[in-house]
Design goal:
The protein is mainly α. It contains 9 helices and no strands. The protein has helices at residues 2-26, 36-60, 75-83, 85-106, 108-132, 149-157, 167-185, 203-225, 238-270. The radius of gyration is 20 Å and the shape is globular.
Length: 271
């Protein structure tokens, strides 16, 4: 029973991390020192995620699955949505814009505050459908293993079919901890959220991108090992993972570099 609940527990843990982290990032200028609950909630999220991972790993070793499953599989519905993604996406965009405009007429501040959550849900929802859809022939394994043992070990570390602790999630936690500790130790981060920033995107925007991206990595781990919302467990191929790594190289690398520069600058000017 606990094994069936493990993927949902994992998502709850990630939500704790992401929602608390985004609150920390968005309220950086509003607090002299963050409340202790911010540290506590982040720790809870990490612990819940680790516990769910251990449950899945320990139980999953006893379960072997190969071949068709009996019973209803909601992947049929997901596949249908994926085939009609442009039509559904256009309707959702129009509906969201209309609702935001209506809200803007009565309360402009609320409309602007709802814009970011709407984008967040849209991107996470799209990644959910993309990861959960049937890969068909694309999931056939390809012989792309490098000869170097070190490279193979590195690839295993970033194989999110084996664990949910993705590079985006780790960098996101590092950014949140930097925000929390900067208030605690009294050094100021130059976030450049207004004016003419030196970088393509600000660190808070980068944190939101990482938060969205971390769910895609979590979804691919979950569906590799568990049934999820009526979608049957299915072995994931290399194509989805390679696409995730391609985006990681572009986004995570640049965001990590921005975080590192801002942190070094803050430490250098404060001490």
């Amino acid at each position: 029973m606990i094994y069936k609940a493990a993927p949902y527990i994992l998502i709850i843990g990630m939500l704790f991390i992401v929602l608390n982290g985004l609150w920390v990032v968005d309220t950086y200028d509003s607090y002299v020192t963050y409340p202790k609950e911010a540290f506590f909630n982040l720790a809870i999220g990490i612990c819940i995620t680790v516990i769910a991972y251990l449950i899945i790993q320990l139980k999953g070793k006893r379960i072997t699955y190969d071949g068709p499953r009996i019973g209803k599989d909601n992947r049929v519905f997901i596949n249908k949505m994926w085939r009609q993604r442009e039509k559904i996406g256009n309707r959702l965009v129009v509906f969201s814009l209309v609702m935001l405009v209506i809200i803007f007429i009565f309360d402009s501040s609320m409309a602007f505050s709802l814009l970011q959550p709407t984008l967040f849900l849209g991107i996470v929802g799209f990644s959910f459908i993309y990861i959960m859809k049937d890969e068909g022939k694309d999931k056939e394994e390809k012989d792309i293993q490098p000869k170097s043992h070190k490279v193979r070990y590195l690839l295993r570390l970033v194989d999110y079919r084996k664990h949910p602790f993705s590079v985006p999630l780790i960098i996101f936690i590092m950014i949140v901890l930097t925000f929390l500790l900067s208030k605690y130790f009294g050094f100021v981060l130059n976030l450049e959220t207004s004016g003419n920033p030196r970088y393509v995107l600000s660190l808070p925007v980068g944190a939101r991108i990482l938060a969205q991206f971390s769910f895609a990595c979590g979804f691919i781990y979950i569906i590799q090992h568990c049934d999820f919302f009526g979608i049957r467990q299915e072995k994931q191929g290399d194509d989805k993972l390679m696409l995730i790594h391609f985006i990681e190289i572009i986004m995570c690398g640049s965001i990590f570099f921005i975080w590192l520069i801002i942190l070094c600058e803050a430490l250098f000017t404060s001490y």
